[in-house]
Amino acid sequence: MNIAALPKIELHCHLDGSLRPETIIEIAMREGITLPSFDIEEIQKELIAPLECESLDEYLERFTIPNLVMQSKENLRRITFELFEDAAQENVKYMEVRFAPLLHTAKGLGVEEIIQSVLDGMKDAENQYEIKGNLILSCMRTMSAASAFEVVEKGKKFLGKGVVAIDLCASEEEGFCGRFVEPIAVAREYGYRVTIHAGETGIGENVLEAVKLLGAERIGHGVFIKDCEEAYNIVKENNVTLEMCPTSNVQTKAVNRFSEHPIYPFHKDGIKVTINTDNRTVSDTTMANECNIIFNEFNLSDEDYQQIYLNSVEASFADTETKQKLKSYLAADKG
Fold this sequence. Notes:
Blueprint lengths: L7 E7 L6 H11 L8 H8 L8 H5 L3 H5 L4 H16 L3 E8 L11 H18 L3 E9 L4 H11 L7 E7 L11 H10 L2 E6 L5 H11 L3 E4 L7 H9 L3 E4 L1 H6 L11 H6 L4 E3 L11 H12 L3 H14 L4 H15 L1
Parallel strand pairs: 1-2, 2-3, 3-4, 4-5, 5-6, 6-7, 7-8
């Protein structure tokens, strides 16, 4: 199996977790931004979370430095372009990138300017490489419901122009869905698709509520449905797709080791799973690496991969034309 040559789709990738370390140093030096070090190896140590993280919260600490250099239109455009460029070079044909606009307002940018800048970077890459993309707007669970309303309202004008969905992310607490029922309902009315981070830190019930209260069509991670029968059943019966991120899940201690990851048992039981990086820099990974892990740990067959790829196509928030194109890559690969 030539993993490098396989067509790939990524549905769960955070912009601020996927910056090139060299870019961070270059921007910081140019703009006079203080970093712990300007040495590439030292910065990589600050950016990359260890496999033996104690928790999701420790993992999330790695996002502080990237956000220092993501506060101008030019930088956001460049960083987005570079992420899509990196993905295209490993044969990712389609990628949905998520980011939280409110994290990039520290130097005065408005939410609409931020979204437009990220869109511009994505379009630059689409024009240069054989890759298509869409954007998911993340709302921070650590912020108020009012902040989520702001993102929903200001992102509305970009629906159909590269923005496709709304997301809730950041530190996960039990029962978070109840606070965000109204803004997510408004988002659905406007035409946003819905994917929610849930079941990443031991709380399978959050997945159940994400589907029932928020109308989640996809779940970011969802590992802990394995411990909540009701959540497991609603995911399976409603064809909710799980965006699974093996390396990240080991780092955050959602699972202790790759061999214990539930992605393959879920897949074999008919739950729709997809393979993703989560954060290319923070997890020091690529889509090729994530695929390699799953192939090696679970002896994945060609047919298994094709099914997971098709799951990704169908679960994507792409338009029909793009989905047909993505299916054609698999047919060409099989040929």
